[in-house]
Design goal:
21 helices; 3-stranded antiparallel sheet
C-alpha cells in the first residue's frame, strides 16, 4: 500500500498550517490520518504523548528508540512535524520538548474514547429501508462504475460490444482537468499521465481522483478543506451500513452526488434521504484493497502472499515473451494492448508477444517498465505463480520469468538514459564536519537523493527539514 499512501501524504504535506487546524477539528479526520498516513513508530510516539499533561523533553523521547534505529526515529518525527501533529516547545527550564498539537490531540482522544457528539462518523439510518442493498450489490456497483471511468479513458472504441458508458459531465471534466484525457472534437484520447493512471492499483487511482476533486473544489464554489474532511469521514464509515443525509450540509450533499458517479458511494437517487458507502470509500484509510487489481472484474477476495486476490490472475507469460491472457473483458484487452502486440483473439483468450517495439511504444506514451512489470505481476495466473514458486530451489521465487522483466527494463534504458529529479542542492560547506551532519540527517529522514563527499555537496528532494536542522545547529 505504499503507493496509495504516498499520494495523499504528499498532498497533505503541501497544505498550509491553517488548513490542518481546520481539518483536525473533526475526530474522523484525525483518526483517519492517524491510521493511514503515519508509520508505526510515529503512531507509538503519538499514543505515548497523547494523554501527557506536560510536554516531554526531547532527550526523554530519544532514549525510547535504540541507537541503531535513529533513522526510523528521525523519519517518524519528520512526518509528524510536516503533518502538524507534533511540535516542539520550550519548558520553564528552557528545555526543548515535544507535544501533540491541538486540535489534533483533542479530536483523536474523542475518536478513541467515543465521546464526541458532532456526528463526525455519520448517522446510522434507523428507519426501515424497503430497498436495502447487500454488500455484494455494493461491490458490483462499485466495480461497474469504476470500470466505466477506466473504459472512458481507454476509449469507447476499445469497448465495442460492451454495455453503454454513461458518465456525468462533471466526471469527464475532472478527468480532463487532471490531464488524464484530452478531448479532440468528439474523440477522447488518453494522455501519458492517463496511461500511467490506468495501470496503478485501484486504491492509488481512487486517491488520485479524489485529490483532483479536492483541488478543483474551489473552482466550482466549494470549500476544499470541507470536502477533504468529508472524504475522511466517508473512509471511517462501515461497509454495508445505511447512513442518513439529513445532517449533511449543501457542500457535503453535492460531494456525495459527485462521488456516486465514481462508485465511491451508492444512493438510489440524488433526492434519496440515505446513502451507502462502497468498498472504494471504506478502504481509503485501511490496508485492504478495494479492487483486486486495476480494471479487474472481481472485488477483493482471499488475499495471497502478494497482497492481491488469488483469483484475479489471468495472464501467463513465457520466457520467449509470448503472452496468453485468459479474459474476455474488452477493457483488460485494451490495457494489455498498450505494451503487447496482440496476435489472436478467441472467446476467452487473447495471445500476443511483448516485443521491443511494443514496449518502446508504451514508454513513449508515458508507461514505465516498472508499471508494465507490476501489471503483469498483479495479474499473473495462479498456475504461473504455483509453477515458478515450485521450481525455484534455494532462491527466492520469481513469479515472472527474470529474462522477461530484465529485458523490459533494458528496453526502457535504451530510451531513458537520463532521469530528471526535482529538488534542492546544498553546497559551499566550509569544513567536512559541517557538511557531514546535515547530509547524514537528510539521509536519516529519507530525503537524500545524491551526495558527493569530495565536493562537499548533497541533493535532497525536500529542503524544509534540512534547513531547520542547519538553523538549529547555528
Amino acid at each position: 500500500m505504499a503507493a496509495a499512501t504516498s499520494r495523499p501524504l504528499e498532498y497533505l504535506e503541501s497544505l498550509p498550517g491553517t488548513t490542518f487546524f481546520k481539518l483536525y477539528q473533526q475526530p474522523s479526520t484525525a483518526l483517519a490520518i492517524f491510521r493511514r498516513m503515519l508509520p508505526d513508530l510515529a503512531k507509538c510516539f503519538v499514543m505515548a504523548l497523547l494523554y501527557l499533561k506536560d510536554p516531554l523533553p526531547t532527550a526523554d523521547l530519544e532514549i525510547w528508540v535504540k541507537s541503531e534505529s535513529k533513522k526510523e526515529r528521525d523519519n517518524a518525527l519528520s512526518i509528524l512535524g510536516r503533518l502538524h501533529i507534533l511540535s516542539t516547545t520550550l519548558t520553564g527550564k528552557n528545555v526543548r520538548a515535544y507535544m501533540v498539537t491541538n486540535p489534533f490531540a483533542s479530536s483523536l482522544r474523542q475518536a478513541l474514547m467515543g465521546s464526541e457528539q458532532s456526528q463526525s462518523f455519520g448517522v446510522f439510518s434507523q428507519a426501515p429501508d424497503n430497498h436495502a442493498v447487500s454488500i455484494p450489490y455494493l461491490d458490483e456497483y462499485a466495480r461497474r462504475q469504476w470500470e466505466c471511468v477506466l473504459g472512458y479513458m481507454v476509449g469507447t472504441s476499445a469497448l465495442s460490444g460492451s454495455r453503454d458508458i454513461t458518465l456525468s459531465k462533471g466526471v469527464k471534466q475532472l478527468l480532463q482537468a487532471g490531464h488524464l484525457v484530452e478531448i479532440r472534437g468528439n474523440r477522447v484520447d488518453i494522455t501519458k499521465d492517463g496511461f500511467g493512471f490506468v495501470l496503478q492499483d485501484v486504491n492509488t487511482q481512487v486517491w488520485h481522483i479524489l485529490i483532483l476533486y479536492v483541488e478543483s473544489a474551489h473552482a466550482i464554489g466549494m470549500d476544499s478543506v470541507e470536502v477533504l474532511s468529508f472524504l475522511f469521514l466517508l473512509s471511517s464509515l462501515e461497509l454495508g451500513e445505511c447512513y442518513e443525509k439529513s445532517g449533511l450540509n449543501s457542500i457535503q450533499l453535492r460531494t456525495l452526488t459527485d462521488l456516486a458517479d465514481f462508485g465511491i458511494v451508492y444512493q438510489e437517487s440524488p433526492e434519496a434521504t440515505r446513502f451507502y458507502p462502497t468498498r472504494l470509500a471504506t478502504t481509503l484509510t485501511s490496508d485492504s484493497s478495494a479492487l483486486s487489481a486495476p480494471a479487474s472484474g472481481s472485488l477483493t477476495g482471499p488475499v495471497g502472499p502478494s497482497g492481491n486476490s488469488a483469483s484475479s490472475g489471468f495472464i501467463v507469460i513465457e520466457t520467449n515473451y509470448r503472452l496468453y491472457a485468459y479474459t474476455s473483458s474488452p477493457l483488460q484487452i485494451s490495457l494489455i494492448s498498450l505494451f503487447t502486440n496482440l496476435k489472436y483473439r478467441f472467446p476467452n483468450l487473447v495471445t500476443g508477444k511483448v516485443t521491443r517495439q511494443s514496449v518502446r511504444r508504451a514508454i513513449e506514451m508515458g508507461i514505465t517498465a516498472d508499471q508494465i512489470i507490476s501489471y503483469l505481476l498483479t495479474h499473473a495466473h495462479p498456475q504461473l505463480r504455483k509453477h515458478n514458486a515450485s521450481t525455484s530451489a534455494g532462491v527466492p521465487p520469481s513469479i515472472l520469468p527474470p529474462t522477461v522483466t530484465d529485458q523490459i527494463r533494458l528496453w526502457q534504458l535504451e530510451r531513458d538514459r537520463l532521469r530528471a529529479t526535482a529538488g534542492f542542492l546544498f553546497k559551499d560547506f566550509a569544513t567536512l564536519v559541517e557538511y557531514q551532519a546535515p547530509c547524514q540527517y537528510a539521509e536519516d529522514i529519507g530525503v537524500l537523493v545524491w551526495k558527493s563527499d569530495r565536493k562537499r555537496m548533497f541533493f535532497v528532494s525536500r529542503h524544509e527539514e534540512v534547513a531547520k536542522f542547519l538553523r538549529g545547529r547555528k
